[in-house]
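Below is how a single chain appears once it has passed through the pipeline. First comes the sequence as given, then the structure the pipeline wrote out for it. We keep one example in the README because the format questions we get most often are answered faster by looking than by reading.
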Amino acid sequence: MIGGSIATVSGDWKRFQEDNWMKRNATAGLEEFYLDKHFKDGKHLILETSGSTDTDYDLLLDLSKEDFGYVHLSYDAFRKYYDDSGDYFEFPAGDGIPAFYELDKNLHTDRSNISLELALTLPEQPRYILSYDHMSRIGEMPLATRGMVTDTVPATDISQYTYPWSKDINWTTDTFKAGTEFTLKGINFALSQQYQIFSDDESGNNVYEMRDNAVLQRIETQNEPSSHTATTNFTADTKIKDTLQMKLGYALNKSSSRDQYRTRTYGSNGTITNTFDYYNGEANSDLGAQSVNWGMNLKILDDLTFRGALRYRTANISGSSEYIRDNKAVIPGSVLHNQNSDIEESNTGETVNLTYKGIPRTSIYAEASAEQSRVDYSIFGREYDETRSTNLNWENKTFYFKENYSLGINTRPIKQLFISARYKRKNRDNSYNSKVDNKERTQHQLSDPKSFQYPGYIGDNTQVTDEYSLRTNITLNKFISFGAKYQAANTSYDVMKESYTEIGSLDDHTTSASVTVTPTDKLYLNCVYSIEKMKLRTPSADANVAHTPTDQPFNGDSSSILGAVNYALNEKTTLSGQFQTWRSEADRSVSGMASIERELIKNILLKIGYSYYAYNEGYPTSFNDYKAHVGSVSITGKF
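Resulting structure:
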């Protein structure tokens, strides 16, 4: 299939490209080519490819021979677009319309993936597999920095901005893997060895601006991380009759990483001033981890199945870092920081599942899982400057505990009715215990000793979520059917800090309904309506008193409508269309598509389409608004 399209955009065309993964102006190319060929000697060839001037390419090649082996090659590349402008959020006290902040750049990243796999699959012999994968990301993408603008002091008119910030991306990952699979005395074994190399070279710049567009400061960063990872995997599974299946797995992971980083901060005139900050550092770390997994499937009765799994993982990460920080644009005033860290981690997890199918046209299931982790994290080192030498000592012991319970049913009591219901509870409990040795810093009578500590601000964090879902579908007759779905989630949390406890909750309810009508074999109609209501209750802003939930201005209510129609005008011509609208208190969007497909001659199809896109951010601004018209044409041949 070959084709092309052209898009005309008014407004923020960069936001249009990001939202719709579509380039403005014209694109053309080979949209799809597919070949499936069988040969008499048992060989089988599959070739699939596509490409366009929009830097999107795909290639898939499979060549196999029965009882011998195969070659698999794939390549894909595509471009992801980004908007380079900031955003604006008006607080209840705010009444101003801000200036527009953008980087004046066409931000995008080009992503590519290459995969090659070779396999030898001789009958009654072990299978041998070799593979190589390459991934790369090159380009420039945005980041977000939030800030406030005040018109008076003390502030009575406050608005918040997302200031534009970008960074250069240039990273690659190469993965080599070799493995074998074989069966011995009824047990299936698999062994693989993987080696991965990761490298990156990224830099960025951040521009903070005031309302009058005066530059406040600029930050430049450069980061060059790299890592080498080796992983060994071993699995064995067997099936005992038809009632019991067991699987055992073991993995060993070794990796080392290195990171060089530099950061500079400039004053308002873009030159080195007394406010100049400078970081230059390097960090190294080594990881050693191993894990064991065990699982089983047991058929207790003809209609009752039990599944269970256990896993255990332990890891140790040792690292060191060194950086120079200059606060006064002169090296004698700098601080040299040498730091060593050690992390010990252990993790265990269990999962059990019961499924019962003894009731006709009904499946009932129950599942429970739990995971416990302990992380011991310690940092020690020294900090030097021209006047003092200070010890750095910090210890943190963190405990994580997660558990999930779910109960559900899928049933079709009658042919025309399907019902699915589920309840799930999630519990999260994290505990942090930090110890800081700050005596030497305090003895130096620094102006703000607390600023040099590493306190564990959060002592305990507990979170409980209850989820409910109900889905049903009713088929009245061959012409019309209805569907409905309701999903609710309530999350409550409390966070214990040094002198108080925060308490809050989040309620999220989503309701949707759909109808499908097929009055004739030539006409298909479908419409889906969905509404989501979300309310966040968070503590007050006073950090000196106990916190209680209070309704906040934030409201996440949104709604959407999706419609689709297909009509066969005759044996050679088909009309189709789609419509979608989405609306919230923050923004709204509308899109629509109409097309006609006509068979010109046998196996040659012509398709002409038109699409419309519109977006409005909903604030008293129009910085990110756009409207777009897209025309497309394609020709498909089948041979």
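The chain has a mean pLDDT of 82.

See the next section for the split statistics.
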